[in-house]
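WARN retry 2 of 3 for item q-0093 after timeout on previous attempt; input resubmitted unchanged.
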Amino acid sequence: MNEHIKFTGPADILAFIPHTLGQTPRESFVALTMQGKQLGATLRVDAPFGLDPVAYAHTIVSYLTADEAATGSLLVIYTDENPRENQRPYSGHVQALRTELETAGMPLQDAWLVTSESWRNYLCTDTGCCPDQPLDAITTSNGNAALIYRGSVVTGFPAPAPFTGDEAARAAIAAHQPDVWPDDLEASRAAWAKVLENPKSLTTRTAHQLAGALQHPAVRDYLMGDIITDDADQFTSVMLGVFGSRPDWARVDTAQEVAFELMKATPEGQRAPMLCLIGWLEWLKGKSSFADRYFKLALQDVAGYRLAELLAELVNRGLLAECARDPRTAYDRQLNR
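OK item q-0093 returned
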């Protein structure tokens, strides 16, 4: 895992993007920074339907400048927005972005257009020189094969686990909701810590206990913070993704897996805390698109659920977790390239 994967062409780079984002983008701009000849950060944003080109470009570059080692950039536009009628969709936005990137010291080195049918170089307008390429050229590329060999799988959006219990679970969860402060808090934190250390120890009774604990806003916040640190004084900064050191990302992955398991024992109307927890961890990893979907599911489960509204606002404002901006603390999917 310490050897870098060598990408030799555009198809390799286009194969890398779904692996690092977890899904193949649609109607999106994906910008990648270059650190010399190596890929740096990857940023996906929604395609700029009706947005001002300069403001849109400024927003993208403001995120990319977090990569202080960047010396250049690449751009991939995923869209089916009139691709045949317009060989270069969003040309005004791309030109504004090129200008902003040049000013920021990370000039655009190349760009590609990917539709649901094919892909081609965006900057080259000579179809004889740069004809459309089939999508399977991406999936059969050496880069994609190397990523799969390293253990990477593009799973797409992980759907919430369905409820597999009975209606008795609702009463059991309600019975476990903390009402003695702070005694119930410490008991809940101890049960949570035990399950994070050994997920196989999770029983139906423990699942109901933890699901009940998560219904209490204060206890929920402590359990979320405990994934990263047990220092209560740091919880506010932790919720905003500001860490003093690199978190235990394996523990974060375990917490997400446990939350999915908890939802199997939790009926509708009580699942919002788990959905927020999963979405928040996705946001910490830099996967804002996934995070936003979980927050919306939480609001569908419990209308007006305050934590989901607050966390969704972070995503809607385009804010990235501080830990995701810093390579020293960011989530590492072990994709060396």
